[in-house]
Amino acid sequence: MARGPFASSEGIGRAREPWSALNRALANDGVDAIGDGASALSSFATYEETNVRASYDVVIVGAGLSGCVIAERLSRELGKRALVVERRAHVGGNCYDYVDEHGIRASKYGAHLFHTKHERVWEYVKRFSEWIPFDHRVRGVVASAETGESKLVPIPPTMDTVNALFGTTISSEEEMEAWYKSERVFPADGAEPANGEEAALMRVGPRLYEAIFKHYTKKQWDKYPNELDASVLMRLPCRTSTDDRYFSDPWQALPKRGYTRIFENMIGNDPNVDVRFDADFFELKRLGKLPKYDLLVYTGQIDSYYAALGMPKLEYRSLRFEEEYIEDTEDGLFFQEAMVVNYTGADVPFTRIVEYKHVPNQPEGRHEKPGTLIAREYSSAEGEPYYPVPNPENRALYERYAELAAKEQGVAFVGRLASYKYFNMDEAILNALEVFDNFVETGALEPKRAPSAFGSA
Ligand code: FDA
């Protein structure tokens, strides 16, 4: 049987009914001004002293979502001139994707799936891309409790997952509720969960915890759940239906020509915006090569901004991607059954394998051609800062940095690195839009709500 692309009767990348109908994104929603035509992207260049102006209204550090949304808003709404300095060689921050030498669209910094409950964000992103509705569904290789044999099951666990792993024949939401009720274990005397393990046992009980969450968490954080904050596992999803969609937001879609195109449409040809690559802000500052500016928007790591003070550094988890292009797969076209397959056991060192070819926004016809690109993901303490480590020490340290930041005049600290907070893409966009709102209303470039007000851990 052919392994892909991952589809249902509703099409490639779609969940089955009734779940796919919950997705409000429509086929070909949105506008891509550049489209399939070539574009010179006059705003983008590698930094040289000769290709920046002597002065700007704003200097923005970082060409990720946070920096680019603010540059776009300031230019389009207020005609402000911005210089965006980016130390990498490309726009897009961690959302950057590209088509590789085999014609496969891949993400440089891990799979990115857009989903939002914020209509304002959905309306905003539709200005910069056409979108394809996509219901992200994850599968997990999990050892069956009955036989020990590995099974491919929906993650997060649904009715089908429980039936496959525990040999049950649950067929209604009521039976599923009852199953969870019989499994859950609460801390004694009605106490709050003291750590991640107690939180997980309260949510899903010991059997699902052991099979799906315990070892996966250890691989992700290099700590067992009983060494982590309860908050890390408090939101473990436990579905009572057959809904196997990973996200439950009303809008879920992929940009037809990839994420990088969004940035190109946003500011790639804006005469008010200069984006300069291979340009580290601190290095330019040290060399006295920064132009004059009125305001600074800083989207890098907050602890790097204050490095000179010698305070401890904030802790992050990173990822290492081991990419492999496979010419001959078993079925000739695909390596695995879904775009993302999680490996929940302690028997393999990686957390998941991503196979990009499954997604519907691959270049036309790529699904039918042989050869596929996979990326095994290993969690690590070294490398690019990806996930803040949520524990009381890091939170307290971040508060010390945030106090310093609050006293800075003319500097806005924006985005996931400056806020030491995991933002989904839509949250990063909303946060940046609200920073802009504040500027219009009060003249201050600062977030309207605390980073902690956004939902993710
Ligand atoms: P981002 O990190 O993207 O941009 C900051 C930029 O600043 C970087 O380009 C950096 O190089 C630059 N910079 C830093 N210091 C600098 C300096 N000194 N000088 C110059 N430049 C500097 N979200 C989602 O909704 N769905 C998903 O599926 C995923 N998947 C996902 C996977 C992985 C592995 C990660 C790490 C993250 C996700 N995300 C996600 C989250 C998403 O990547 C995130 O919301 C955005 O990248 C946030 O954009 P920012 O601009 O805030 O940071």
Report on this structure:
The structure is a single chain. The mean pLDDT is about 95. It is globular and about 70 Å long. It folds into two domains: about 15-35 and about 40-135 and about 250-315 and about 390-455, NAD(P)-binding Rossmann-like Domain (Rossmann fold); about 140-235, no CATH class. The protein has helices at about 65-80, 120-125, 160-165, 175-185, 195-220, 230-235, 260-265, 280-285, 300-305, 390-405, 425-440; strands spanning about 5-10, 10, 30, 45, 55-60, 80-85, 95-100, 105, 115, 130-135, 140-145, 150-155, 250-255, 275, 290-300, 315-325, 340-345, 350-355, 370-380, 385-390, 410-415. Helix 1 (about 65-80) runs parallel beside helix 11 (about 425-440). It is an alpha/beta fold. Dihydroflavine-adenine dinucleotide (FDA) binds next to helix 1, helix 8 and helix 11.
Mass-distribution shape: globular
CATH architectural group of the largest domain: 3-Layer(aba) Sandwich
Which topology of the largest domain does CATH recognise? Rossmann fold
Strand order, largest beta sheet: 12-11-17-18-19-16-20
Ranges where pLDDT stays below 50 over 5 or more residues in a row are: none
Rounded to the nearest angstrom, the distance between the terminal CA atoms is 39 Å
Count every helix, treating DSSP H or I runs of 4 or more residues as helices.
Answer: 11
Percentage of β-strand residues = 15-25%
Number of DSSP-assigned strands: 21
